[in-house]
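re: ur msg from earlier - yeah i can do the C2E complex, just paste it... oh wait u already did. ok heres what im feeding in:
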Amino acid sequence: MSAAARLLLIDDAALAASFLTSLLEESGSGHTLEWRNTYEAGLEALRSGAFDLCFLDYELGDRSGLDLLKQAMAEGCRTSVVMLTGQGNRELDHQAMSLGAIDYLVKSNFTAVDFERLVRYLVGRHRVLERLRDSEERFALAVRGANDGIWDWRVGAEAAHLSPRFKAMLGFTEDELPDVLESWRARIHPDDQKVVRDQLEAHVQGHSDYFEHEHRLLHKDGSWRHVLMKGQAVRDAAAKARRIAGSFTDVTVSRARDVLTGLPNRVLYLDRLEMAFHRSRRDPDYGFALLFVDLDRFKSVNDSLGHSAGDELLVQLSQRLLGCVRLVDTVARLGGDEFTVLLEDTREPDGPARVATRMLEALKAPFTLSTGHEVFSSASIGIVNSSAGYKHPEELLRDADTAMYEAKAAGRGQFVVFDPAMRQRAMHVLSVESGLRHAVDASQLVAHYQPILDLESRRILGFEALVRWNHPTRGLLAPGEFISIAEDTRVITEIDLCVMRIACAQLAQWRAEGRDLFISLNASRVQFTRPLFPTELIAVLEATKVPASAVRLEVTESVAMGEKAQVLPQLTRLDELGVQLVIDDFGVGFASLSVLQEFPFKGLKVDRSFVSKLETSARHVGIVSALMNLAKALELSIVSEGIETEGQLAILRRLGCTRGQGYLLSRPVSAEAATALLGRQPVG
Ligand code: C2E
Ligand code: MG
Ligand code: MG
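and the outut:
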């Protein structure tokens, strides 16, 4: 025994004390003995925890040593207790052992050497136990500190050890969750159940070296926690898994951060939003606001400078946004270039708008990237206030998103506060969009045909195909009702091809009757962002056996506003195929004359807005006259649109225009009516 031990004697007889003291002195061990002669004093000494070993007499005046033992053990006493007995009462001794005493000694029945040996053994044992307890405690503390829960499962058994920390992670106290595997298994998210089961089984079967899986567990409060579960099996000689133990780590928080910017991500944002939402319902004085921030034209930064430049911009930008709010507010990144802000405890009605203004200001200064590039950025912001009687937090996010889109539509770089009329519009857009997707498959799209005539002979040279939507409840809809939504949602690409198929099939039929006509097809600018478009058009021509030379493709000047590198290859390919490219609505767009030089256009259509003023405005006569000269010089064909009166027709003819279309000559009509119109002129 390395160090001297402190011994305690609790005995009401002074004789015992002097006897043990003399034995100790005789042994020369250096142990010290302290003596207490009453129940209370003895208990007090045991409570102090200062002793390595205690000798306890059965009789303490009118109190019982066993009672003292019982009480001390109940209080968690850690000192080893040896009972001192007069004449060896087996019954009592057993009772004492069952209460926690470690041994008993029959008084006066041992020598100094025996006593010394016994003490040495018991003190040593006590110290080992103490160390063990310490390390157990340290281990438990370490586990708690590492925020990990522990699990331990004897393979095949239902019982499993689930540490208190694990239970606490899910919001339960030690007793609330039974120590069975099912306590864990039943709380796994339904979508994760199968893969967790399979992976655990694979590990039990020895197919993996260790088990590691992240899944969602149901917290007592109904939320989902992301938990990383690790484990490893202990195997027997036959490699059969006997037992698996491991840890649980709550990774919800790390899962809740956006990796790039370090801002809260969608999960965490929704969590905070939900908290603010519930608080606002409990406390009528508490209000909050939600800002949806979307960068304008972020894609062009990514496309022109690369993704790492885009990432850098997002990081810098998130810092500027953070600088515009208070500490209690939350700025989160939902993904891509979308940010959301939660403004807490908003007291002044125009507070959120002021924050939005500050943000727009903060974005005005250029961003300097590590490549040396200076980038300018702006954002569109939608704002929604908590006051408007919402039932679910997600509704606020949806409305802020809607307001953000309004801000974009209103010209970007600004903020818009949500009002319920916007929801109506958004609903309308949504229903048109989903209706359109369905319309393509359900053959609800039809083509109407407006003749393009020789203005001299009034002979039909060809038709422009114009789409109509045969809506199941709203009747026949003109393009004005749905084209812009179709373009925004890119459904237009399907619509165009659908009309092309219908119109080419119709043209093939007319041509089969011996009529040498052309068809004018409208193609949205969206088509030309898709490299596949020319191939798709060729497929339509091949399927309908229409020669490319019988097809005019009408595109608006806005095509030329897109990325030239993206658009030009498509236009060139179509031109090489023999499809004639025509600029529609010429003169109303922003395109400069250089467009006519740089792109392979073969014709242009004079916009109706010029034609309609020919009879009243000499200036417009001048403009159209100039257009005619331009077309002649550049060898472009010209068609005038929207001819409504004989007067307009006469002026156009005088200016040298030979082709035109308009209500005067014919409205766009159904295929049958168009066939009937053709029937009035000789075949050819
Ligand atoms: P657009 O290509 O300029 O077509 C001419 C539009 O002017 C047609 O309107 C036609 O009905 C109308 N129009 C023709 N003559 C007159 C006239 O004398 N007076 C007046 N006031 N209007 C006249 P619609 O059919 O409503 O089409 C509107 C626009 O929708 C088209 O303008 C075209 O840009 C687009 N569009 C139509 N069909 C398609 C299609 O299949 N694909 C694509 N991408 N766009 C289409
Ligand atoms: Mg057109
Ligand atoms: Mg037009």
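cool cool. The chain has a mean pLDDT of 89. ping me if u need the other ligands too
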